[in-house]
Amino acid sequence: MTQKALAEHVGVTRQTIIAIEGAKYSPTLELAFQIAAVFDKPLGDVFTYDP
Question: What is the pLDDT of residue 2?
């Protein structure tokens, strides 16, 4: 899936997806769940938290 397609699915810009992938932006919990749902995966399979 392209960054543009993912962005369109969850209602954000491609730049937001790029920032999330580059660890420069942490998505809201709602956005994180939406992204996980697009891939039909549990949240923990898509995102990790490293304090």
Answer: 98
